[in-house]
Amino acid sequence: MASDRIDPGFRALPLEAMADAALGRARELGAQHADVRVEQIVSQEIELRDGTVTGVSDSTTLGLAVRVIVDGVWGFASHVELTPARAAATAERAVQVARTLAPVAKERVERADEPVHAGAVWVSKYRIDPFTVPTREKVELLTEWSQRLLAADGIDHVRAGVAQVRENKFYADLTGTSTIQQRVRIAPTFDATSVDRASGGFESMRTIAPPTGRGWEYLTGEGWDWDAELATVPELLAEKIKAPSVVAGAYDLVIDPTNLWLTIHESVGHATEYDRAIGYEAAYAGTSFATPDKLGTLRYGSEVMHVTGDRTVPHGLATVGFDDDGVATSEWDLVRAGVLVGYQLDRTFATRLGLERSNGCAYADSPHHVPIQRMANVSLRPDPVQDTSTDELIAGVERGIYVVGDRSWSIDMQRYNFQFTGQRFYSIENGKLAGQLRDVAYQATTTDFWGSMDAVGGPSTWVLHGAMNCGKAQPGQIAPVSHGCPSARFRGVNVLNTQEEAQ
To answer: Vertex 419, ends 187 and 249: CA angle to 5°?
Structure first.
């Protein structure tokens, strides 16, 4: 049963008693809405350089939060003491905050309805909780990876590491919803560096493995072939060092999911966050060209572009059973047949679009932060008709470039003008790969880029990639998010030579 997998230490906390005390006190003081979150976030990071441990850090965040609405105004308070008495006192402070803010509040809060979810339990899909594995065993595995790379010709330095998080969250509100959840995520990494001692230059290459909502089984081969990648990276790096520099110009691109996920994140994921689209992020991270007046009419891309928001996909970093508004999560369309048709929303923003329900995008990264609208797993769907392979996409290109792995990126404050680089680039000549290239970046506007996509790969090319550290808001919050996508082909994209651009 899912409940049997919940961390027993978290289960042993007086969760229901704290919720009853806080919610009861909030109701007594006139709150029309109140919710309680109790969170425990356990993290560990291990880092090695050249096979030697340079750092092991462990941290635990534990606390409770109370959020209220009093006469249409939000109030929020949190505390580290987990007792019913402290929960009630925290509710009093939250109500006091709401009443203090009432004279300056410019708008009154209205929230979309949500069915009651009483006693719900949800646990993410993983097999081995990484916090049950001794740190010594983790270090031994990362050391073995490092030694294998260092033993290869041409490899001068290696970094390896892994970040792991177990997040427990209890939620309860005045409607009767109560949920308890546990999710695990993990991000292994390594990179190899080759140094040219004559010139002082260097080149590096890192794993293209994604962070994922899995457990320790991921590092032992379940979901990724680490042995194969460790064996091939030295050869790929040696080829990259000798590769010619790209000639700038227009090229057809076939982009691997290991690169395309980041372009989706920056040009679609952030652009379709509703709070950003209406200006809530303008002072910090910018706005969006995809404004609500264009909903249903904006030609975002070609007709083969079908992008969904999804909080349910197995192993997704943004996958949960219930969000921090008590909403049961789902999947929905953001871009359909190339047209903008939806946004990522919480319960407050859903009402602004006239929607009956939120699509479950409220999230706080700590018990001491207020929930805000955060990104779902935003994904490009594969070809629904045929299982087109990456090789078949490449075969349709006479002169182009195949892009693998992510690296640096840049995009403007409206998510419209961008450029992206990658880990590896291969010249395509007459439908076949013709060796690696260097110094490649592709540049476009969002709508031109997605409008140039003439084909997507089938389900066999689809990979769920992502990041553990998507930043947003003031004070800043960090959220994990995945982006699934197939390989895809783009026609006539502008390619820059990064060395020439740097001069």
So the answer is: 130
